[in-house]
Write a structure and sequence with these properties.
The chain is an alpha+beta fold. The protein has 2 domains: about 15-110, no CATH class; about 115-170, bsu07140 like domains (CRO Repressor), CATH 3.30.240.20. It is built from 8 helices and 4 strands; from the N terminus they run ααααααββααββ. The protein has helices spanning about 5-10, 25-45, 50, 55-75, 80-100, 105-110, 125-130, 135-145; strands at about 115-120, 120-125, 155-160, 165-170. A 4-stranded antiparallel β-sheet has the order 2-1-3-4. A hairpin with a 5-residue loop joins strand 3 (about 155-160) and strand 4. Helix 2 (about 25-45) packs antiparallel against helix 4 (about 55-75), helix 2 (about 25-45) crosses helix 5 and helix 5 packs across helix 6 (about 105-110). The longest helix has 24 residues, at about 80-100. The chain is elongated, with a radius of gyration of 24 Å. About 10% of the residues are buried. Belongs to the UPF0702 family. Its main location: membrane. It is found in: Cell membrane. Keywords: Cell membrane, Membrane, Transmembrane, Transmembrane helix.
Length: about 180
């Protein structure tokens, strides 16, 4: 008699905790498909979604994770299935990280490019609209940089991670007597 058979009846959780209901490779395939699908959708929604989470954005991410759970595990709630999914997701995330580090083209495709929102005190309204950033969000970043007026900003850049970096204009030096 094997140890697995002994444990199956003796403990509330036994072999059933480890016995997959689907082949292992199906978990890997499902995780890759869901990861890719979410990556594309989140990339299409813009940088703001990732870097500056409003409460509704945070709730959306939580709901998304719950929504895709069954599509990844196919109703299998075993520990082994969870381990396979976690390992697959961490591995694909590591590959994506390595790929974006290695290839400028992959980095641009997957993460996008920084966008200039203010240049020499001139606000780019079209860029704000395309990135779905409100004036309030932009002004909060400007104030955080210690600047009170857009006219005093040399450049404000929406980075690929969703953060807005602000570089103020150099202060005018007083005229020499």
């Amino acid at each position: 008699m094997s140890i697995a058979m002994l444990l199956e009846g003796a403990l509330p959780v036994g072999v059933s905790m480890w016995k997959l209901t689907q082949p292992w490779w199906e978990f890997v395939l499902r995780a890759l498909l869901v990861y890719g699908f979410l990556l594309v959708l989140l990339r299409l929604t813009g940088k703001r979604q990732v870097g500056q989470l409003a409460p509704f954005d945070f709730v959306m991410l939580l709901v998304l994770s719950n929504a895709v759970q069954n599509s990844m595990n196919a109703g299998d709630n075993t520990v082994a299935g969870g381990f396979i999914l976690v390992a697959t997701l961490l591995a694909v995330n590591g590959v994506m990280s390595w790929l974006t580090w290695r290839s400028k083209r992959a980095e641009t495709l997957l993460e996008g490019r920084p966008q200039i929102l203010i240049h020499n005190g001139q606000l780019d309204e079209a860029m704000l609209a395309s990135e779905r950033i409100t004036r309030h969000e932009l002004m909060a970043a400007v104030r955080q940089a210690g600047v009170s007026d857009v006219a005093d900003v040399r450049v404000a850049i929406l980075e690929t991670n969703g953060r807005i970096n602000v570089i103020p204009l150099a202060p005018q030096s007083p005229a020499a007597p």
